[in-house]
């Protein structure tokens, strides 16, 4: 009898297999990824519109650290190419005009860097961040200037305008580097 009782169970199982997949509810389709939040370009260039990075040698200063060179510049901001305000010691939040009447605000001052942000009225538009970072290897100091924007502007989207402004920036920051090459001895 035991053999006949299992026949209906086997037949029921085979019938289920032959009938095809069960009508179980389908799993929900995977959701599309959430839109990426815009990068906070004040913090750094990752996810932002990159403009340029330039490096300048400040020469050999074996007894001066990067903090002292940065401090020399931020304590004597007249060394920087400013045409209005901020001629003395600067602090985060200070507003100045770079040469050509380009308004900027000091965003951050770190141990070995400081960063400015362009304001409305700047020739490249508002939202351009420029970081001036100081490094030292075997007593040789370097100034690295990195610029980026929150988003492209009318100028930075045009090759000629962007190239002209990048070349102007290269020359301006080169003059600053030459000034620091000598003033770093006083740091």
Could you characterize the architecture of this molecule?
The chain has 187 residues and is an alpha+beta fold. The chain is built from three helices and seven strands, in the order H-E-H-E-E-E-E-E-E-H. A seven-stranded antiparallel sheet has the order 1-7-6-5-4-3-2. Mean pLDDT is 79; it is low at 1-25 and 32-37.
Task: Give a brief description.
With 187 residues, the chain is α+β, with helices and mostly antiparallel strands. The protein contains 3 helices and 7 strands; from the N terminus they run αβαββββββα.
Radius of gyration: 31 Å
Question: How many helix segments?
Answer: 3
Strand order of the largest sheet: 1-7-6-5-4-3-2
Task: Pick out the low-confidence regions.
Answer: 1-25, 32-37
Task: Note the beta-strand portion.
Answer: 25-35%
What class, by secondary structure content?
Answer: alpha+beta
């Amino acid at each position: 009898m035991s053999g006949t009782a299992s026949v209906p169970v086997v037949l029921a199982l085979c019938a289920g297999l032959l009938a095809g997949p069960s009508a179980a509810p389908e799993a929900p389709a995977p959701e599309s990824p959430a839109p990426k939040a815009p990068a906070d370009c004040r913090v750094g260039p990752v996810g932002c519109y990159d403009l340029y990075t330039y490096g300048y040698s400040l020469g050999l200063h074996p007894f001066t650290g990067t903090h002292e060179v940065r401090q020399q510049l931020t304590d004597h901001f007249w060394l920087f190419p400013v045409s209005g305000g901020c001629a003395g010691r600067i602090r985060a939040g200070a507003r100045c005009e770079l040469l050509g009447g380009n308004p900027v605000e000091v965003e951050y001052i770190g141990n070995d860097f400081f960063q400015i942000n362009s304001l409305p009225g700047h020739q490249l538009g508002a939202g351009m961040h420029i970081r001036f970072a100081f490094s030292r290897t075997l007593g040789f100091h370097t100034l690295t200037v990195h610029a980026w924007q929150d988003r492209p502007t009318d100028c930075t989207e045009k090759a000629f305008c962007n190239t002209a402004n990048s070349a102007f920036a290269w020359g301006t920051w080169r003059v600053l580097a030459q000034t620091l090459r000598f003033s770093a001895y006083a740091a």
